[in-house]
Amino acid sequence: MPADAGTPLDGVDAVLADLDGVVYRGRHAVDHAVESLNRVAEHRRVGYITNNASRPAATVAAQLSGYGLTVTADDVVTSPEAAVLLLADLVPAGATVLVVGGEGLTSVVEAAGFTVTRSAEDSPAAVVQGFSPDVGWKDLAEAAFALHGDIPWVATNTDWTIPQERGIAPGNGTLVSAVHTAVGRLPVTAGKPETPIFTAAVTRFGATRALFVGDRLDTDIVGANRAGLLSALVLTGIDGAKQLLAAPADSRPDFVLGDLRELHEPYPAVEEHHEEDIRVVTVRGASVGVRGNVVRVVSAGDDPVDLIRAGTRAVWSTGLAIYALDVDPALHPDDPRGT
User: Fold this and answer.
1) Taking the CA of residue 215 as centre, how many other CA atoms within 13 Å lie in the half-sphere pointing to its CB?
2) Residue of 4, 13, 20, 134 with catalytic role
3) DSSP character string of 124-192
4) Exposed e or buried b for every residue in 318-327, given b needs 16+ CB within 10 A?
5) How far apart are CA 219 and CA 265, in angstroms?
6) pLDDT in tens, 275-284
7) Catalytic pick from 4, 18, 159, 302?
8) Quick one: pLDDT at residue 13?
């Protein structure tokens, strides 16, 4: 994490935002997301990046506009748009492609000049698979039948879950896994965490230094890091403190945000010092002590996000595989409360 007092937007010419868990959950906008992103758009290009292949970009833009965001279809980059770029390198122009998914995928495949089929009996040249709540066993079976012919298989994304208004539901990754189990091989993936969707977004928006904001480490942050972008995890969606503390090196964000208002606020510095055999990591009022392979809270501070920032720095910098995070007065002998 940067250790200066600048904001996460310093030096950034484009902000790329994930949707599910960042801008909205289900039918409702995430608190503070709309006003924060509109404020970013006053001075920088804002793009919206989604692995969800169920809807066309224009439909996504209309939903975002309904929340009060200033956005057009051209501001939305979907995983189907990245998937057809991969298809174009794998099969001839105009080829027949078996599509597993909804309108968000079929419309993009057709717009790219391919012929859409739903049946393996049409001898498709490739299979492309994306999420739709209407995908059923028959769709997955047709994909499996076609893929036994050793043709290319492109998945828009492999997210295991998708956040919904009622909770967390199975995502496209679970459906891809069902086909994988039947055919014994894996697809080429266009969406996060693979780089095609990030490359498409950076190219479209002409970004030279982009910040990607997501809510998942395994797709959003890993993908942004692979693509060489700055990354921020916002704690309004899937992943939280537990996942951050256990994050391997390739899925650690540059910034951890409680909500999107913090894009515009000075990012707190991380300070470290030693008290005998204890290394203490402090972020504003939150402090975490490290002794051996144990990490414990010294001071919780006023902001829970600062405690997460201090805890992650402590764990990440030591490479601890086993740790405890708890309040322990022994780590701060001058304060009997340990806080």
Assistant:
1) 24
2) 20
3) -SEEEE---TT--HHHHHHHHHHHTT---EEES---SEEEETTEEEE-HHHHHHHHHHHHS---EE-ST
4) eebeebebee
5) 25
6) 888 999 999 9
7) 18
8) 97
pLDDT in tens, 253-307: 999 999 999 999 999 999 998 888 899 999 999 999 988 878 889 999 999 999 9
Q: Provide the mean pLDDT of the chain.
A: 91
Return the closest-CA partner of residue 87 out of 57, 119, 112, 54: 112
* pLDDT band, residue 168 (cuts 50/70/90): confident
User: For the residues 145-167, what does the mean pLDDT come to?
Assistant: 90
Is 20 labeled as catalytic in the residue annotation?
A: yes
User: Would you call 22 helix, strand, or coil by DSSP?
Assistant: coil
Give residue for tokens 């969606």: 237
DSSP string, 296-326: EEEE--S-HHHHHHHHHHHHHHHT-SS----
User: Global pTM?
Assistant: 0.84
Whether 139 sits among the annotated catalytic residues: the reply is no
In the chain, domain spans: 14-51+193-264, 80-189, 271-331
Q: CATH number for the 14-51+193-264 domain, one of 3.40.50.1000, 3.40.50.20, 3.40.50.300, 1.10.10.10?
A: 3.40.50.1000
Strand partners, 17: 48, 213
Q: What is the pLDDT of residue 322?
A: 44
Q: HSE on the CB side for 167, CA within 13 Å?
A: 2
